[in-house]
Amino acid sequence: MLDSVSLSANRNNIIGLIGNNGAGKTTFIKIIARLISIDSGEINLPAQDKIAVVFDHSPFPSKLTINELEKVLSRLFLAWQTDRFFSYIEYFDLPLDVSINNFSKGMSMKLNISVALSHQAQVLLLDEPTSGLDPVVRIEILDIIKSYVKENEAVAVISTHILDDIEKIATSVIVMHEGKFVFKQEAEEIPDMDYLEKKIEDIMKNKEKFDDRAFSERFI
Fold first, then answer.
1. Torsion of Cα atoms, 69 then 74 then 77 then 82, to 10°
2. Tell me, what's the pLDDT at 218?
3. Total domain count for the chain?
4. Exposed / middle / buried, residue 127 (Cβ in 10 Å: 0-12, 13-18, 19+)
5. Which of 36, 163, 194, 220 is deepest in the core (most CB within 10 A)?
6. 31-40, 122-131, 132-141: segment of lowest average pLDDT
7. How deeply is 52 buried, as exposed, middle or buried, from its count of CB atoms within 10 A (0-12, 13-18, 19+)?
């Protein structure tokens, strides 16, 4: 359950969302994606087909091949870009005629990313997109997300527990704990990941309280 969370973002923002298991990160992303309804408040986002969601599992029918899946997706998305999709598939060296259920976790995540970036999404919602992946694949995916946000003036929210990912890609950082935003700061104001890790430890131990009012004036 979330408690009075509030977030706004400008174009080209990549917001890193950190928190322990059960903190509410996935719930927050599902709410933004309109996969979960809310009891109160409001969500002001582009149309549904301008939002791309990536979870750490494949949402696609496992018996389909990439060629078959592309035919389905081209009918689902109004702004589907076939050439862009297959350029990502080629870059990631994914097989076109192998059933998705035979893909490794890394291959599935590459496919998820390829789909998310191929229908002109203005908002990217990424839930643990690099969890369990080897370092080379992690860097590849983070670089592609960063490039997409810059080239398309998009906004990304990336949920992760990997601080190295935050350091590499985020322009702003939010820490969640027990359904609340307990820390927000622009990445350029964070001296290093040791500082951020210490902040998180203090928050989890209730040593430090967060005053959202002071931050809201400067966090966009």
1. 100
2. 36
3. 1
4. buried
5. 163
6. 31-40
7. buried
